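S.,

As promised, the shikimate-3-phosphate run. Input:
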Amino acid sequence: MEKNIVLVGFMGSGKSMIARRLAKQLKVQLVLTDALIEAKAAKSIDAIFTDHGEPYFRDLEAQVIKEVSLRRGVIIDCGGGAVLRKENLQHLKTNGIVFFLQAAPEVIYQRIKNEKHRPLLKVPDPLGSIRQMYQQRLPLYNQADHVIDANDASIEGPVVEILKRI
Ligand code: S3P
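Predicted complex:
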């Protein structure tokens, strides 16, 4: 596999599980941008947001994306906000095919409402916040090369669909 497979989409769209399955099935390396950001900062995503704020996190994210975009033949699992900076998607597309895993805000909310580690959802109205961020990000996610339906709880459908399109 010459090109990278890049997964983008909202938190809770199934990126991590799908990325892991693809890496296993294709026997290629899996690269997690969030994990690389945590390694660079030597702290958790949550702590980066608390201690330094979101813009600092986005700077680290952009650096990591630029670096991983140079690789070839790997699966890249991106954080949900990776599309917020235009240059990120440009870098990711250089050596990669970008897949947007699309799931509705209500589906996302059901999947992640009990998880506590996501800084952007520590707000009084998480569903409202998801809806708002989703609307803002949708045009950016839609700049991916492919849109994959990820509303179903099973990851089989998206995995098969991605394999069909590479
Ligand atoms: C973010 C999504 C998170 C993580 C950070 C910000 C976002 O990644 O990068 O909390 O802005 O949507 P996941 O999509 O893997 O949860």
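Residues 38 and 45 are 6 Å apart (CA to CA). Strands lie at 4-8, 30-32, 75-77, 96-102, 146-149.

- D.
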